[in-house]
C-alpha cells in the first residue's frame, strides 16, 4: 500500500513536470505533503493518461458533411459560441448546432474530446457530429432538447422536482468526476430541465478540463454568481469541488427562490455577498490556510459579517420547498474550504434523496 501510494506521487510529479509550474518552488511534492488538495476519490484517476497532462493535445476530431445541415434560427448567443437550430437533411431531423466564434482551436478540440469521452454519461446531450467549413469555422451537432422556461422553473418548480433534478445533476457530475473531468461552468443555462418530461441535460463543456493534482488552471471559468471562493481568490489549483459549489449555488437559488443565491457584480462584491451569508471570519480562516496560493488583497474590500443560519432565509414563498435535509445538504456544498466540501458521490447518498424513487410527480 505504501509503495503504491509512493508510485502515485512519483507519477504525479512526472506528469506535472510537463504541465504548468506551480507558484511554490517545490510545488507538487510540497502541495501533496501539505494536503492542500482535496483528498478526493478521483484525485489520481488521470495518472494513466499522460497525454492529457498538458493543455495541448494531439487529438484531432473527424469531420462530418457540412452540406447535410441547414441553419434555421438562433437559439442562444454566448461569448465563445452561438447555438443555432438546424436541420439534418439525410435524417429529416431538427438539431442544435453550436458554432464556435471566439474559442482557441485547442480548446475546441479539448471540448470535443471530452464530449466523446462522456458519451455514456447520464443526462448527457451526446455529440452527434462535428463540422468544419471551408473558412475553418467549427461546429458541433446535438439533438434538440426543449427546456422549461427558466422563469417557470424559478416560480413553479415543486419540492419533488427540485430533488429529482439535482439528483440527476449530481449523477452526471459523479460520472464526469469519476473520469477525471471537471465541468467548471454549472449555471442555470447549462442545467437544462424539462418539467413536463421530467428530464434534464447538463450541457456546455467548453470550460471542462481533465484534473491533475497540483496542476494550475485558469480561474476565469464559471459565471460570477456561481464562482467558488477559490476562483474569486485566484486559486489556480482548484479541483472537482468547484463544481459542487456552483451546483450548491443553483440548488440554494431554487430552494429559497432567491436568484441568484449570491449576487455580486465583480470578484470583490461576489465575495462580499458570500460573506454576508457564510460569514467573514470563516472566509479569512480559509484564505489564511491557502495564503501561499491565493491573492488575498481582495479581502480588503469584503465587509465584516457574522454567518447566518440558512433557516433564516425561509419565508412564505419557499417554506414548502425547504426541508431540514435540504439545508443540511446545501450546507455541505457551500463550504469555503474546497477540500471539505461534500463530493458528488457522497451527495448522492445524502438523506435528502431518500425515497426519491417512490415520489409521485
Descriptive notes:
The chain has 361 residues and is α+β, with helices and mostly antiparallel strands. It has 2 domains: 78 residues, Phosphorylase Kinase, domain 1 (2-Layer Sandwich); 209 residues, Transferase(Phosphotransferase), domain 1. It contains 11 helices and 9 strands. The protein has a 5-stranded antiparallel sheet, covered by helices on one side. The chain has a two-stranded antiparallel ribbon with strand order 6-9. The chain has a two-stranded antiparallel sheet with strand order 7-8. Strand 4 and strand 5 form a beta hairpin. Helix 5 packs antiparallel against helix 7 and helix 7 packs antiparallel against helix 10. The radius of gyration is 21 Å and the shape is globular.
Q: Count the E strands.
A: 9
Class by alpha and beta content = alpha+beta
The CATH class of the largest domain is identified as Mainly Alpha
Number of domains: 2
CATH fold type of the largest domain: Transferase(Phosphotransferase), domain 1
Helix and strand element order: HHEEEHEEHHEEEEHHHHHH
| End-to-end Cα distance | 48 Å
Indicate the radius of gyration in whole angstroms. 21 Å
Share of helical residues? 25-40%
Poorly predicted sequence stretches spanning 5 or more consecutive residues:
1-30
Globular, elongated, flat, extended or rod-shaped: what is the shape? globular
CATH superfamily of the largest domain: Transferase(Phosphotransferase) domain 1
The residue-averaged pLDDT reads 88
Largest sheet descriptor: 5 strands, antiparallel
Widest sheet, order of strands: 1-2-3-5-4
**Number of helices, where a helix is a run of at least 4 consecutive DSSP H or I residues:** 11
Note the beta-strand portion. 5-15%
**Per CATH, which architecture of the largest domain?**
Orthogonal Bundle
Amino acid at each position: 500500500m505504501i509503495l503504491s501510494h509512493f508510485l502515485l506521487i512519483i507519477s504525479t510529479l512526472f506528469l506535472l513536470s510537463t504541465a504548468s509550474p506551480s507558484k511554490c518552488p517545490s510545488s507538487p511534492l510540497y502541495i501533496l505533503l501539505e494536503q492542500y488538495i482535496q483528498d478526493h476519490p478521483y484525485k489520481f484517476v488521470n495518472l494513466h493518461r499522460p497525454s492529457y497532462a498538458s493543455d495541448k493535445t494531439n487529438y484531432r476530431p473527424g469531420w462530418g458533411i457540412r452540406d447535410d445541415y441547414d441553419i434555421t434560427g438562433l437559439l442562444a448567443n454566448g461569448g465563445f459560441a452561438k447555438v443555432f437550430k438546424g436541420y439534418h437533411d439525410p435524417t429529416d431531423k431538427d438539431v442544435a448546432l453550436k458554432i464556435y466564434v471566439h474559442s482557441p482551436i485547442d480548446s475546441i478540440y479539448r471540448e470535443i474530446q471530452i464530449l466523446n469521452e462522456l458519451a455514456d454519461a447520464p443526462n448527457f446531450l451526446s455529440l452527434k457530429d462535428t463540422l468544419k467549413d471551408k473558412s475553418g469555422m467549427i461546429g458541433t451537432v446535438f439533438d434538440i432538447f426543449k427546456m422549461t422556461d427558466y422563469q417557470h422553473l424559478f416560480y413553479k418548480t415543486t419540492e419533488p422536482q427540485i430533488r429529482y433534478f439535482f439528483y440527476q445533476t449530481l449523477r452526471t457530475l459523479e460520472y464526469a468526476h469519476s473520469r477525471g473531468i471537471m465541468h467548471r461552468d454549472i449555471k442555470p443555462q447549462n442545467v437544462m430541465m424539462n418539467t413536463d418530461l421530467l428530464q434534464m441535460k447538463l450541457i456546455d463543456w467548453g470550460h471542462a478540463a481533465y484534473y491533475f493534482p497540483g496542476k494550475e488552471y485558469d480561474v476565469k471559468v464559471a459565471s460570477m454568481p456561481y464562482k467558488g471562493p477559490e476562483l474569486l481568490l485566484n486559486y489556480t489549483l482548484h479541483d472537482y469541488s468547484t463544481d459542487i459549489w456552483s451546483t450548491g449555488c443553483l440548488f440554494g437559488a431554487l430552494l429559497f427562490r432567491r436568484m441568484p443565491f449570491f449576487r455580486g457584480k465583480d470578484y470583490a462584491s461576489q465575495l462580499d455577498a458570500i460573506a454576508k451569508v457564510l460569514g467573514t471570519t470563516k472566509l479569512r480562516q480559509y484564505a489564511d490556510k491557502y495564503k501561499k496560493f491565493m491573492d488575498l488583497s481582495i479581502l480588503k474590500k469584503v465587509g465584516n459579517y457574522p454567518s447566518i443560519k440558512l433557516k433564516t432565509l425561509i419565508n412564505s414563498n419557499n417554506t414548502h420547498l425547504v426541508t431540514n435535509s435540504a439545508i443540511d445538504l446545501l450546507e455541505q456544498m457551500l463550504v469555503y474550504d474546497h477540500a471539505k466540501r461534500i463530493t458528488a458521490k457522497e451527495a448522492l447518498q445524502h438523506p435528502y434523496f431518500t425515497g426519491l424513487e417512490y415520489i409521485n410527480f
